[in-house]
Design a protein that fits this description.
Elements (H helix, E strand, L loop, with lengths): L2 H23 L13 E10 L6 E2 L7 E10 L5 E10 L2 E10 L4 E10 L3 E9 L14 E8 L2 E6 L12 E6 L13
Antiparallel strand pairs: 1-2, 1-3, 3-6, 4-5, 4-7, 7-8, 9-10
């Protein structure tokens, strides 16, 4: 290959390289260090405080319960010194500092709490101050909404025909609890 051919060859490939670099300059992409951590809030559920380990789907007013959540490190590095913020309606609490290994799942809870009728929201935020460098900073929180059954009562002032079955009084039940009522209308 002659000297001018080599010069032309280098010039042509340099131009192609320059075009490639210019086209890549317009692209945006994320670059992460190998082996980064990634904390996330997994599942959230409720448990009766007297039956730990048994998830429940319904609460009655006055019932004692815990709110449970799992924290996962789906990244590749161990994290030391992370915090966890928990919000329950208007209340707030912070847990930590704690450490979690790569691939580890930890279970945290708040309670015991006393159920009050109505709809409630709990929000869990891991690494709330963004102190841990993570692969994904958008998966650090989860919200869970639940409703506590509203109690109702039935008052019986007198039974038909003067009988005492059922006895006069107030009978309290929670939403979802069965209550059978038999009645007749007489003129």
């Amino acid at each position: 290959m002659s000297r001018s051919d080599r010069y032309y060859y280098l010039l042509r490939h340099s131009a192609l390289l320059l075009v490639l670099l210019i086209s890549l300059a317009g692209l945006t992409f994320s670059v992460h260090a190998a082996g980064s951590a990634d904390l996330t809030v997994g599942s959230i559920w409720l448990e009766d405080a007297s039956q730990v380990g048994q998830p429940i789907s319904q609460l009655s007013p006055g019932q004692s319960f815990n709110i449970i959540a799992t924290i996962k490190n789906i990244g590749q590095d161990t994290v030391a010194g992370y915090y966890l913020d928990v919000y329950y309606d208007g209340d707030y609490g912070r847990g930590g500092p704690d450490s979690i290994a790569a691939g580890e799942v930890q279970t945290w809870y708040v309670g015991p709490l006393t159920a009050q009728a109505g709809t409630h929201t709990t929000r869990w935020v891991v690494d709330p101050d963004n102190m841990i460098q993570e692969l994904d900073e958008t998966n650090n929180e989860r919200e869970y909404e639940f409703t506590v059954g509203i109690a109702y009562s039935l008052e019986i002032s007198a039974a038909a025909g003067g009988t005492t079955d059922p006895a006069p009084g107030t009978y309290s039940k929670s939403v979802g609890d069965p209550m059978a009522i038999t009645y007749s209308v007489a003129s």
